[in-house]
């Protein structure tokens, strides 16, 4: 199995905040100017403030999954054939995002002769993954929240997500 231990927390990353769902829920709203247009102005500060939030909220030190809200990913659907070079299509899509391509990660999901390309700025989510690690938790996957349906994640939906956490394997930005 992908997870060495069943995830116990869901971290939901939006443009201006992150929510942590586990035994209880907590929200961290990013200070003004720290994240603008999905670009992190100071990755060390984002890491440190996330770590401070985890400590002050006494978030349970467990493994978890980080889900990226639709507002923090870019998505494109395109037709493909058996001859399509998926890696080349992913690389091309990374070049077309509004970020430095060296900081972009792209996953591809095949569905009925279509390729769904989903791109994210790893410079946005990796300081958060590192903060959880430094706190004593482990983020097993970073995946688009859309894998688990539409809508905003709540405490109730987080429980359903945790029960189906293996779906995060389909598009894990940490596996790239």
Structure description:
This protein has four helices and ten strands; from the N terminus they run βββββαββαββαβα. The strands form three sheets. It has a five-stranded mixed β-sheet with strand order 3-2-1-6-10, with helices on both faces. Strand 1 and strand 2 form a beta hairpin. It starts with 8 loop residues before the first strand and ends in a 13-residue tail after the last helix. The chain has 176 residues and is an alpha+beta fold. Helix 1 (43-56) crosses helix 3. The longest helix is centred in the first third of the chain and has 14 residues, at 43-56.
Compact description:
With 176 residues, the protein is α+β, with helices and mostly antiparallel strands. The chain has helices spanning 43-56, 86-96, 122-135, 155-163; strands spanning 9-13, 17-21, 25-29, 35-36, 39-40, 63-68, 73-79, 104-111, 114-121, 138-144.
Radius of gyration: 16 Å
- Amount of beta strand: 25-35%
Structural class: alpha+beta
Instruction: Find the count of extended strands (DSSP E, 2+ residues).
Output: 10
Entry keywords:
3-stranded antiparallel sheet; globular; 27% helix; 176 residues; alpha+beta; 10 strands
């Amino acid at each position: 199995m992908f997870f060495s231990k069943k995830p116990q927390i869901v971290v939901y990353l939006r443009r201006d905040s992150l929510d942590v769902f586990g035994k209880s829920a907590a929200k961290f709203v990013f200070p003004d100017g720290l994240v603008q247009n999905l670009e992190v102005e100071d990755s060390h500060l984002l890491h440190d403030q996330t770590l401070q939030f985890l400590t002050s909220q006494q978030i349970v030190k467990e493994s978890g999954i980080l889900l990226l809200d639709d507002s923090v990913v870019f998505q494109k659907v395109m037709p493909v054939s058996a001859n399509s070079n998926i890696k080349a299509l992913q690389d091309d899509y990374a070049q077309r995002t509004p970020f430095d391509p060296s900081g972009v990660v792209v996953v591809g999901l095949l569905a009925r002769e279509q390729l769904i390309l989903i791109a994210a700025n790893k410079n946005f989510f990796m300081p958060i993954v590192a903060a959880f690690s430094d706190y004593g938790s482990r983020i097993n996957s970073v995946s688009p929240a859309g894998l688990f349906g539409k809508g905003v994640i709540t405490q109730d939906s987080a429980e359903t997500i945790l029960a189906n956490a293996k779906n995060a394997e389909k598009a894990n930005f940490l596996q790239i």
